[in-house]
Design a protein that fits this description.
The complex is a heterodimer of chains A (326) and B (337). Chain A is built from 14 helices and seven strands. With 326 residues, chain A is α/β, with parallel strands linked by helices. The longest helix of chain A has 24 residues. Chain A is globular, with a radius of gyration of 19 Å. The mean pLDDT of chain A is 97. In chain B, helix 7 links the parallel strand 6 and strand 7. Chain B is globular and about 60 Å long. Classes of the chains: A alpha/beta (326), B alpha/beta (337). Bound molecules: thiamine diphosphate and magnesium ion.
């Protein structure tokens, strides 16, 4: 099995990028089923529809760069290189999980690829990423920090304080807002009085851009630009990736509040289909190869599910490990 | 009437809103979606979007706004979906609201209710499963209320809304769906600061709150021990007289808590009883708590983490029979001191 760093390096290949997006999709679909089947308890937040952002940032960043993301983090983690077993193991509370199974769906982490502990508190990762960028600027290690967060998070204080700090200290940090139209059950236009969140970055004198979050190339291009700026000492960048969450907010949510037809309009611009078509158009792949990739990915996810079901549940002893404070 | 705790909460809020036009409710997805835990079912439909307001994800903003409004004429209730989210708004509650009366020489008060869901048992993990009572109990200026089911949720909520000072209501999330016979209307109102004796007996006084009350009751039954069971219902101010009188009779105190061993709400009860009832005590004061670890996510570990009915029964039996401290399981197993 590939290590997280090897999985990360593989994203240099466009076909591997498509495959990783398929893997995330297949994984998230399977997770929804596993929760529905009652195999896993608690809650989970899936990211179907947002795969291009995850893979786009992972393709650009180096493993030494530091990433903060959220409870909607399976896709980010898999893109950054965490193995299917590490992510599913965590979701199923197994010792094979990314943090030994005591964290659960909302809490993934892998230092080898720069994934800081993901937070279940909206906005928390934003100032934390600013801090990672502060460390980079002081140690001169050349790393960049990147925070991923949702549209809803731009209404919390941590967002505003974090952006302002990054701007005045000119820190090497990239703020990536995944505007997936909803924060929990509230449509973004009901909680936020502006259409483009990129405006909020500009309010802090941070170069800010609207990005087509369904296009892998668009995400890659924007993140490359931002990371170059950060590494060159040019300070922070804010990217608003316009995207969409196909599923409800969490496993309990059937997303009945969405206007008729909205989901279909987004499905018509599915990031996986768009990128597959692009690779077919370029002659890199043909339809049969795309289908074979999909099948291979589904098989891999299913095998992982079987392995994880058989894996050892997190132990009582593990509750007492890594607690600190004593 | 039998109702679920979430319905009792919505009903209590509705009854106060009908009686007092200054009562309003704010929070994330509480209006159109009727609350992530459906604790505001029907409120938007009856009272409209001015009094039942969805907010952005801006806890500091809406807790502060609730305080400002409370000080100047309204009686706002804010919902904090999971108690941990109060972390980003704590200033407004513990440093501002809690001090308004004091720092205005009594000119301003803050009739504000902060409600939040708390506790473990549903697999929400380390950042969404704590109870955190002592964040508030150690802060003079706040009242702290913890219902143990729909009956107390209804009665205490109505009093909390009427109270002239800020009240934090901590609701065990696992109880929202539980049904209990509930008296509504004026008759169902429960005053703050008054505990309730749920069963009586002579060998021990068992004190608890929230979702642990049910477990403690089961444990006492299972152990076959004759004990007083007191649901404290209010943690600040807690009913010292009721507990002292019981301990004077039983000579033993067992506190059952869903809090860490270090700094849980019961430390205050235990310390007070140990000193004020010293002469009546026949055994050391005992606290049954969770271990000092973050709440683990997997279901099997979450149940290990929480005091179990068996564990509570064993501990009560132990202290009654031996007069010594029952050693917590994690100490016995050498997992932590
Ligand atoms: C401080 C805080 N408040 C509320 C919540 C509950 N909550 C979890 S996710 C969420 C919606 C976040 O929306 P958005 O930032 O758009 O991210 P998305 O879930 O769409 O990825 C809310 C309100 C929380 N976790 N933390
Ligand atoms: Mg969103």
């Amino acid at each position: 099995m590939m290590t997280p760093r090897e999985r990360r390096a593989a994203l240099a290949d466009p076909v591997a990028c498509l495959e990783r997006m398929m893997e995330i999709r297949s994984f998230e679909d399977r997770i929804k089923e596993l929760f529905a089947e009652g195999v896993v308890h608690g809650t989970t937040h899936t990211c179907q529809g947002q795969e291009a952002v995850s893979v786009g940032i992972a393709k650009v960043l180096e493993p030494a760069d530091q990433v903060c993301c959220t409870y909607r983090g399976h896709g980010h983690a898999l893109a950054l290189g965490l193995t299917l077993d590490a992510v599913l193991g965590e979701i199923m509370g197994r010792t094979t999980g990314a943090v030994g199974g005591v964290g659960g769906s909302m809490h993934l982490c892998d230092r080898s690829v720069g994934l800081l502990p993901t937070s279940a508190i909206v906005g928390a990762g934003i100032p934390i990423a600013v801090g990672a960028a502060l460390a980079s600027s002081m140690t001169g290690d050349g790393s960049v920090a990147l925070a991923l967060f949702g549209d809803g998070a731009t209404n919390i204080g941590a967002f505003h304080e974090g952006l302002n700090l990054a701007a005045i200290w000119r820190l090497p940090v990239v703020f990536v807002c995944e505007n997936n139209v909803y924060g929990e059950y509230s449509r973004f236009d009901r909680t936020t009085p502006i259409e483009d969140l990129a405006e909020r970055g500009r309010a802090y004198a941070i170069p800010s851009e609207i990005v087509d979050g369904q296009s892998l190339d668009a995400v890659v291009g924007a993140v490359e630009h931002a990371v170059e700026r950060a590494r060159a000492g040019g300070g922070p960048t804010f990217l608003e990736c316009k995207t969409y969450r196909y599923s409800g907010h969490s496993r309990a949510d059937a997303a009945t509040y969405r206007p008729e037809g909205e989901l279909d309009r987004w499905l018509a611009r599915d990031p996986l289909s768009l990128y597959a078509q692009q690779l077919v158009g370029l002659g890199v792949l043909d339809d049969a190869k795309v289908a074979a990739l999909r099948k291979a990915v589904d098989d891999r996810v299913n095998e992982c599910v079987e392995r994880t079901k058989a894996a050892e549940p997190a132990t009582v002893e593990s509750m007492f490990r890594n607690v600190g404070g004593r | 009437m039998k109702m679920r705790m979430r319905q009792a909460i919505a009903q209590a809020i509705a009854d106060e809103m009908r009686a007092d036009p200054t009562v309003m409710l704010m929070g994330e997805d509480i209006a159109e979606a009727e609350g992530p835990f459906k604790t505001s079912e029907g409120l938007l439909a009856e009272f409209g979007p001015l009094r039942v307001r969805d907010t952005p994800i801006s806890e500091m903003g809406f807790c502060g706004a609730a305080l400002g409004a409370a000080a100047t004429g309204l009686r706002p209730i804010v919902e904090i979906m999971f108690i941990e989210f109060i972390g980003v708004a704590l200033d407004m509650v513990t440093t501002e609201a809690a001090k308004f009366r004091y720092l205005s020489g009594g000119q301003y008060t803050a009739p504000l209710v902060v409600r939040a869901s708390t506790g473990a048992g549903l697999g929400f993990g380390a950042q969404h499963s704590q109870t955190l009572e002592s964040w508030f109990t150690s802060c003079p200026g706040l009242k702290v209320v913890v219902p143990s089911g729909s009956r107390t949720a209804y009665g205490l909520m109505r009093s909390a809304i009427r109270d002239p000072d800020p009240v934090v209501v901590l609701e065990s999330r696992t109880l929202y769906a539980e049904r209990e016979e509930t008296v509504t209307g004026e008759e169902g109102v429960i005053p703050l600061g008054v505990g309730e004796v749920l069963r009586t007996g002579g060998d021990a006084t068992v004190v608890s709150i929230g979702q642990m009350v049910g477990r403690a009751a089961q444990a006492i039954g299972q152990a076959g021990i004759s004990a007083d069971l007191i649901d404290l219902r209010t943690l600040v101010p807690w009913d010292r007289g009721l507990v002292e009188a019981s301990v004077a009779r039983t000579g033993r105190l067992v506190v059952v808590e869903e809090s860490p061993y270090t700094g849980g709400w019961g430390t205050d009860v235990a310390a007070h009883v140990a000193s004020s009832c010293f002469a009546s005590l026949r055994a050391p004061v005992v606290r049954i708590t969770c271990p000092d670890v973050p709440v683990p996510y997997p279901a099997h570990l979450e149940q290990v983490y929480l005091p179990s009915v068996d564990g509570i029964a064993r501990a009560i039996t132990h202290v009654v029979e031996t007069g010594t401290r029952p050693v917590p399981w994690w100490e016995k197993e050498g997992l932590v001191r």
